[in-house]
């Protein structure tokens, strides 16, 4: 790929380790010439993330917790001061109490419902609002979602409800920001073995069924999501906004898994 992202500057939120989806996207963007600022959540993640992102030549690395307004104020003040302009944002953040990522959705508590929606959905809107004044030459924002937003997946529970709200926010944000040349899209990734992914009850079962029933007969990898991230954040997708783009080996297209004998 030619240096599709040369001269572009962006913020990447959600790297926890080298299996993070945000990291898969960041390495694809780096190879295409992007300059990136990173955030990490808390000192423990910081220790791991700092050396990783320094290798990508990043100078702006900030601790930020989306539940902490001041940390976001600090982050955007720094981006304003050091860059003054932002071209893209990667939002790859989600959280729910793992006790509620098993059993029945009907048992979700109000406290965890609110916290899950705040971290996993509202934070994207919050970041979009803060990023907008910096996107003086247009821009592109992406977030990460999962098919549990539209169909029931085992144990996904409140996270499915949060992702449904997140996907709706993508459409409303696209409508709000489009007139300023800012695009907003989501990548709906198939199940991946990350820290957040492992917390979901039935993770191994979901991983296996997705692999066996997907048209491509495999799970998706970081490079798959990285390629889609590069497309959505670069000018290749200049005419695309308000969409949910599936990177799931085609699983979403299937109504019923194939019979074992036809399972190619
Ligand atoms: P991950 O654990 O590597 O990343 C999740 C990130 O969210 C971590 O970096 C964590 O620090 C961050 N985070 C959580 N609460 C936060 C807070 N309050 N403030 C700031 N950051 C916070 O796992 P991942 O799978 O790479 O997750 C990234 C995104 O991809 C999530 O939105 C997830 O729902 C989505 N996704 C994951 C899968 C999967 O199977 N792993 C599939 C589809 C979508």
From TrEMBL:
It comes from the Bacteria. InterPro entries: Enoyl-ACP_Rdtase_NADH, NAD(P)-bd_dom_sf, SDR_fam. The keyword Disulfide bond does not apply. The active site is at residues 146, 156. Pathway: Lipid metabolism; fatty acid biosynthesis. It is an enzyme of class 1 (oxidoreductase). Keywords: Fatty acid biosynthesis, Fatty acid metabolism, Lipid biosynthesis, Lipid metabolism, NAD, Oxidoreductase. Pfam families: adh_short_C2. NAD(+) binds at residues 14, 20-21, 41, 65-66, 93, 163. The keyword Transmembrane helix does not apply. It catalyses: a 2,3-saturated acyl-[ACP] + NAD(+) = a (2E)-enoyl-[ACP] + NADH + H(+). GO terms for biological process: fatty acid biosynthetic process. Gene3D superfamilies: Enoyl acyl carrier protein reductase (1.10.8.400), NAD(P)-binding Rossmann-like Domain (3.40.50.720). GO terms for molecular function: enoyl-[acyl-carrier-protein] reductase (NADH) activity. Its EC number is 1.3.1.9. Belongs to the short-chain dehydrogenases/reductases (SDR) family. FabI subfamily. This is Enoyl-[acyl-carrier-protein] reductase [NADH]. The lineage of its organism: Bacteria, Pseudomonadati, Pseudomonadota, Alphaproteobacteria, Hyphomicrobiales.
């Amino acid at each position: 790929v030619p240096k599709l992202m040369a001269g572009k500057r962006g913020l990447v939120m959600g790297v926890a380790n080298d299996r993070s989806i945000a990291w898969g996207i960041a390495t694809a963007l780096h190879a295409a010439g992007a300059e990136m600022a990173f955030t990490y959540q808390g000192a423990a993640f910081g220790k791991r993330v700092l050396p990783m992102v320094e290798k990508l030549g990043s100078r702006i690395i900030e601790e930020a917790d989306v539940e902490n307004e001041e940390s976001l104020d600090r982050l955007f003040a720094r981006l304003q001061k050091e860059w003054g302009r932002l071209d893209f944002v990667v939002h790859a953040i989600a959280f729910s109490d793992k006790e509620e990522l098993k059993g029945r959705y009907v048992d979700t508590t109000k406290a965890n419902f609110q916290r899950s929606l705040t971290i996993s959905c509202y934070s994207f809107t919050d970041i979009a609002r803060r990023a907008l004044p910096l996107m003086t030459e247009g821009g592109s924002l992406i977030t990460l979602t999962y098919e549990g937003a539209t169909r029931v997946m085992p144990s996904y529970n409140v996270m499915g409800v949060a992702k449904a709200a997140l996907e709706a926010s993508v459409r409303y944000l696209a409508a709000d920001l489009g007139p300023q040349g800012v695009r907003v899209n989501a990548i709906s990734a198939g199940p991946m073995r990350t820290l957040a992914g492992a917390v979901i009850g039935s993770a191994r079962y979901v991983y296996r069924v997705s692999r066996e029933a997907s048209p491509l007969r495999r799970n998706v990898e970081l490079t798959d999501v990285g390629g889609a991230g590069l497309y959505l954040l670069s000018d290749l997708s200049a005419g695309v906004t308000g969409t949910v783009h599936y990177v799931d080996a085609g699983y979403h297209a299937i109504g019923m898994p194939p019979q074992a004998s036809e399972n190619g």
